[in-house]
Request: fold
Amino acid sequence: MKVAMEKILAWKIMPRLMMLVMTIMYIRVIEWFMGLPQDVVSTQATALTATVTGALTGAFAVWVGHEK
Reply:
C-alpha cells in the first residue's frame, strides 16, 4: 500500500491540477477584461486583472522551483 501511495504522490497530481485551474481562471479573467467596453474599464477592473496575473506568476515560479 505504501508503494502505491508513493507512486501516486510522485505523479504530483494535485499541484498540476491546481496550476491547470489557475491557468483557466487567468484566461477567463483576461477574456472578461478584454471584453469590457472602453468606457466601463475602471481602476478596480485593472487592479483585479493585475492581482490575478501576479498570483499566477507567483504560483508558476513556485511550481517551477519545486520541479527540480
